[in-house]
Design brief:
Blueprint (H helix, E strand, L loop, with lengths): L1 E3 L7 H6 L26 H18 L7 E3 L14 H15 L2 H8 L26 H29 L5 E2 L1 E2 L11 H5 L6 E3 L9 H15 L5 E5 L18 H11 L2 E4 L27 H13 L9 E2 L3 E4 L2 H7 L11 H14 L4 E4 L10 E4 L7 H12 L3 E5 L21 H4 L1 E6 L7 E5 L5 E5 L3 E5 L3 E6 L8 E8 L2 E6 L2 E2 L1 H14 L12 E8 L2 E8 L5 E11 L5 E8 L4 E6 L4
Parallel strand pairs: 1-2, 2-3, 4-5, 5-6, 6-7, 9-10, 9-11, 11-12, 12-19
Antiparallel strand pairs: 8-21, 13-16, 14-15, 14-17, 15-20, 17-18, 18-19, 21-22, 22-25, 23-24, 23-25
Bound molecules: alpha-D-galactopyranose.
């Protein structure tokens, strides 16, 4: 049993006794009881009650033979990412004193000389509540950091009690790394706090290919776990009930989703919910045991998956093998999303999704990396959106390229430092050297506009939303703008530095165009192409002491044939495989390779 602490859902009597534990919105509205997750994480009564019930639970169940894992709280950061009450204001002031040291340092970091916002005492500083015009961006950014850190304080308090009273039992809390599902938590920081990274993933029906988002989320989760095995703590057997329209999964889709998570590093597959509820808010959410009972497709597919997954036991402890890395930073995302940017249409999440999708379609497995992480393990590193970059990041990128790496940086990156301040000199301040260029001016496009680029062979690429006046300072122009505000100027550049290369893409390339540029960068990085694999047939490798395993997931409606080097054994059927593998429409095969390649 993975035993949960109930601290995301305090009871009514608790709130009657401590009404201040209900959080307050940025507009000053106090949330009411009647749902769950209504928590002010700074509230002393809440904190005291959370540690008290965790202590009692640990005392009662620590020695229980069924206890395998502790599960603290639920999905920190959702549904309330930050509370703006007076208690949080006081806590924020203490946090600011710890981060900046003095009120002068806060003034400096936040640029409060602008619009007369100077503080002379910490007491004058409030959360970034509703203001008549744009609220100080650095204040807002620090508040997001504070809210995230405050939730982590509460996680640590529960975790430490469990470690003390229940030694040897790992402690987790379920993440929601899908970028569309939670934007208030910096999972790089959280990944370091848990004994086992666990994640919840639900398919989002927004017209895009759901299996691509699933793969991206699983890759991000594995990366937050530092590449170590992780666990899918929740997904759904079929429909969810929190979108406007909630499609049922098609036959075989649940198993394919499940095994896609396992391919990308999960050590198992768990579901919300066991028995479909008949009351409350989630009665139309699918379950392992649906309202229809055991004579149902969902039940049969769940049972079949349970039987199949036993065959994957040898994979335990093996790791997913990735080809390339993508740099992602939650704090940069937070910063770029604030008001007063050159264009609301340039969306970091959209860029991350699109770069991921282009790499997925090239059949490359992606690791994610923090901007300051050691990038040397990957021959190619892409940076789809990094508006905010520290000095360390600039140095890190430069070192990576100098030592032979291929880096692809997308537009409007390296623009501000960690205080949302523009560094001295022309943009992109901290990435100028590595990219070998400067940007004279941003030139966003209107929704009806697009631009054309021309490249080395006279080929034409399309882009929209964004362009820049790029001035090469060492970089070569590979594609230039044919039209638009920067017509005739560089659009995509390549800078040779040390023994590596840094590419810069100064516009928002459409899908096909992005593929063209990434293909060129991949060739440059010596990454072998997997063009022979059909679209939407996913091949992922896990490798470790017990061997090398290939997952082949066929997301198409037709049978797929995939070449397999050497010979292999199918883990589900025991069948001997030689030369190629046939995967039925919508099916999955997992094979153990004999020559370990
Ligand atoms: C989240 C929660 C679950 C349930 C599901 C529904 O992941 O953790 O309790 O509400 O969503 O999809």
């Amino acid at each position: 049993a993975d035993l949960g602490t109930p601290t995301v859902a305090p009871p009514a009597w608790f709130y009657r006794a401590h009404p201040d534990a209900l959080p307050v919105s940025r507009e000053g509205v106090r949330y009411a009881f009647g749902s769950r997750g209504a928590i002010c994480h700074s509230n002393p009564a809440y904190r005291e009650a959370a540690t008290r019930i965790t202590t009692e639970l640990a005392r009662r169940y620590a020695a229980h033979p069924a206890l395998a894992l502790w599960h603290v709280h639920n999905e920190y950061g959702s549904p309330v990412g930050a509370c703006y009450c007076d208690g949080c204001a006081a806590h924020f002031r203490r946090w600011l004193a710890g981060r900046h040291g003095s009120v002068e340092a806060v003034n400096d970091a936040w640029g409060t000389a602008f619009w007369g916002q100077r503080y002379t005492d910490f007491e004058q500083i409030d959360p970034p509540r509703l203001t008549p015009g744009a609220c100080n961006p650095a204040q807002q950014l620090d508040y997001r950091r504070f809210a995230d850190a405050t939730m982590r304080e509460n996680f640590r308090a529960e975790r430490d009690i469990l470690h003390r009273l229940s030694p040897g039992i790992p402690v987790t809390t379920n993440f929601m790394t899908a970028l569309s599902q939670c934007d208030s938590v910096d999972y790089w920081a959280w990944g370091r706090e848990v004994d086992l990274v666990t994640n919840d993933h639900y398919l989002i029906t927004d017209g895009r290919r759901t299996h691509v988002n699933l793969a991206m989320t699983a890759d991000l989760t594995r990366s937050v776990a530092g590449g170590a095995p992780w666990l899918l703590l929740e997904h759904s057997t079929s429909a969810v009930n929190w979108q406007s329209r909630n499609p049922a999964k098609r036959p075989g889709e649940m198993a394919r989703n499940s095994l896609a998570h396992v391919a990308r590093g999960s050590e198992g597959v768990m579901f919300f919910q066991w028995r479909q509820s008949r009351r409350g808010s989630e009665k139309f959410h699918s379950a392992m045991l649906p309202h229809a009972g055991v004579d149902s497709r969902v039940w049969r597919e769940v049972v079949a998956l349970g039987a199949d997954i036993r065959a994957l036991a040898p994979l335990r402890g093996t790791r997913t093998v990735a080809d390339v890395a993508m740099v992602w930073d939650w704090q940069s995302w937070w910063a770029q999303g604030l008001e007063g940017r050159p264009s609301v249409d340039l969306d970091p999440r959209e860029r991350a999704d699109s770069f991921y999708e282009a790499l997925y379609d090239r059949h490359l497995t992606v690791d994610f990396a923090h901007p300051e992480a050691d990038l040397s393990p990957w021959p190619l590193v892409v940076v789809p959106a990094l508006y905010l970059a520290s000095e360390k990041t600039g140095d890190n990128f430069r070192r990576y390229v100098e030592q032979g790496g291929t880096l692809v940086v997308s537009c409007f990156s390296g623009v501000v430092d960690e205080h949302d301040a523009v560094p001295d000199g022309a943009p992109p301040g901290l990435l100028r050297d590595v990219l070998g260029l400067s940007v004279e001016e941003w030139a966003p496009l209107m929704p009806s506009e697009s631009v054309e680029l021309t490249g080395p062979t006279g080929d034409r690429l399309r882009a929209d939303v964004w362009s820049e006046f790029v001035v090469p300072r060492g970089a070569d122009t590979v594609w230039s703008y044919v039209d638009g505000p920067a017509a005739g100027g560089p659009a995509v550049t390549r800078h040779r530095l040390g023994s590596g290369t840094a590419w810069y893409v100064s516009t928002r390339l459409a899908a096909g165009a992005l593929d063209t540029v990434l293909r060129a960068a991949c060739e440059h990085a010596g990454l072998c192409s997997r063009d022979e694999l059909p679209r939407d047939v996913e091949v992922v490798k896990r490798s470790g002491d017990s061997g090398t395993y290939l997952f082949v997931l066929n997301h198409t409606d037709g049978q797929a044939r995939v070449l397999v080097p050497g010979t292999a054994t199918d883990l589900f059927s025991g069948e001997h495989v030689s030369g190629h593998l046939t995967v039925p429409a919508g099916g999955v095969r997992v094979v153990r390779q004999h020559d370990g390649r």
